[in-house]
Amino acid sequence: MQAERPKTGDRFEDASAGAGAVPPAGAAPDRADAPNARLWGGRFEAETDPRVHALNASIPFDRRLVREDLEGSLAHATMLGETGIIAPEDAEAIIAGLKALLADAEAGRLSFRLEDEDIHMNLERLLLERIGPVGGKLHTARSRNDQVALDLHLFVRRQAEAVVEKIRTLQRALLHQAEAHVETILPGYTHLKRAQPVSLAHHLLAYVWMLERDVRRFRAAQTAADVSPLGAGALAGTTHPIDPHRTAALLGLAGIYPNSIDAVSDRDFALDFLYAASMLMMHLSRLGEEIVLWASDEFGFVELPDAFATGSSIMPQKKNPDVFELTRAKSGRVFGHLFALLTVLKGLPLAYNKDLQEDKEGLFDTVDTVHRVLDVLAPAVETLRFRSEAMLRAVRESYANATELADYLVRKGVPFRDAHAAAGRLVRLAADRGVPLEGLPLEDFKAVSPLIGPDVYTVLDPVEAVRRRTSPGGTGFDEVRRQLAQARQAVDGPAPGAFPAGAPVADGR
């Protein structure tokens, strides 16, 4: 699933001339159905300064919520008609008008006005223009405060599911590579120093399990968003006999807020999404960093596919890992959006404040960034070409099998600390001679410990060293194959608690 963007484009009508002119100060009060009335303008006599419009209006970015806003309005209109708050025929007319707007939105035929401030008032304006004054009844028993909160709940729930689908695609790419490299030997690192030989599949599976935790975090964000604030009104509820449970059900939401003040001021679910996205980007950044290192001339462990690499404008020989570098870099902007929203909320009094308008641009950019990175990273990982010989050579040159020698002595009854010291002396001897451990003659081994026999050369073989690490979760080949089956089940098996990709649209039936 691709990140969903509205098809309405950036079309805004200029209200400064012609039929769109704002009435002068002292003019007759606005009628709600007049072409240029501010829908909240009854209290005001003077026109709004254009600079306020520029600062206050959110339509340049919240037009992206057009689908969610219309879905919420369809559910609300249906409930209003069913409860008798408005006449059934009025509800039917509103529902028909909203469905027509939804069709136009999906076809990219809607134009929005800056002076109408936000997606809610723009759509209400368009509805009034299409069906007349009856459209003004849609806003009965709701406020823009609970309306925008609902829109954001629907958006977060839908986008969390879309991100999970793309994480699964990346996991499958990693699994595909892992299944081909169970017995490919890679130097495992600590402190960026070669430490012990491991299966390349085992290393790649570490990222599969990281991503599995990311899936759980996005599921948690879905659960947090799976509640309806509609019915809370501005902050205190409403005197109308609404049925918010019905509205929630029409939207496929699990329930409603128990407190109307919390309903309009809560953005925890957006923070949950941003935190999940930050954790995901941190994991992807780590993967990107390793591919950048492995593709370097100094490592030489992987060949980048031409389709997912770039060249130099001056150096013809270059093949640059831009995809993975940008993956690494873009984590910072996502982290920033999480911190920005935390900062907006940290001292905000209850209930709704205009500050909450700042919850959207960072969230939208996070969604776009995550989708963009996942879209390119999965096929890039799928087509990496690993250089098995270079990896094995790095293992053999690095004394990464020294722990095998210490464990060998432990099995002979030597205390581990003594075995560790003996192995260290042999590493120093081999390094002084410029040979690998297994390049030392048997008499050198015996000079350090008479318990060492000819079988030590089998123990020091990197392939055998990896094969024997059969502890649960270890890098032994059989254990890795078991882990691969477990990972496949996690990625491709049933997903308990999964949410549908999109909430049902209330249709008035």
Question: What value does the average pLDDT take?
Answer: 89
SSE sequence, one letter per element:
EHHHHEHHEEHHHHEHHEHHHHHHH
Strand order of the largest sheet: 1-2
Q: Segments where pLDDT lies below 50 for 5+ residues?
A: 1-10, 14-36, 498-509
The largest pleated sheet is described as: 2 strands, parallel
The portion of residues forming beta strands comes to under 5%
From the helix content, strand content and strand pairing, which structural class follows?
mainly alpha
Radius of gyration, CA atoms, in whole angstroms: 31 Å
Helix fraction bin: 55-70%
Task: State the separation between the terminal residues, measured CA to CA.
Answer: 28 Å
**How many strand segments?**
6
Count of runs of 4 or more consecutive helical residues:
19
Give a quick precis of the structure.
The chain has 509 residues and is mainly α. The protein is 56% helix and 4% strand.
What does this structure look like?
The chain is built from 19 helices and six strands. By secondary structure, the chain is mainly α. The strands form three sheets. A two-stranded parallel sheet has the order 1-2. A two-stranded antiparallel ribbon has the order 3-4. Helix 3 packs across helix 6 and helix 4 packs across helix 5. It is elongated. Mean pLDDT is 89; it is low at 1-10, 14-36 and 498-509.
Characteristic terms for this protein:
mainly alpha, disordered N terminus, disordered C terminus
Topology:
Blueprint: E1 12-13, H1 50-56, H2 59-62, H3 66-83, H4 88-107, E2 112-113, H5 119-131, H6 144-180, E3 185-190, E4 193-199, H7 200-225, H8 244-250, H9 260-265, H10 268-295, E5 302-303, H11 322-345, H12 361-382, E6 385-386, H13 388-396, H14 402-411, H15 416-433, H16 442-448, H17 456-460, H18 462-467, H19 477-492
Helix pairs in contact: 3-4, 3-6, 3-8, 4-5, 6-7, 6-12, 6-19, 7-10, 7-19, 10-11, 10-12, 11-12, 14-15
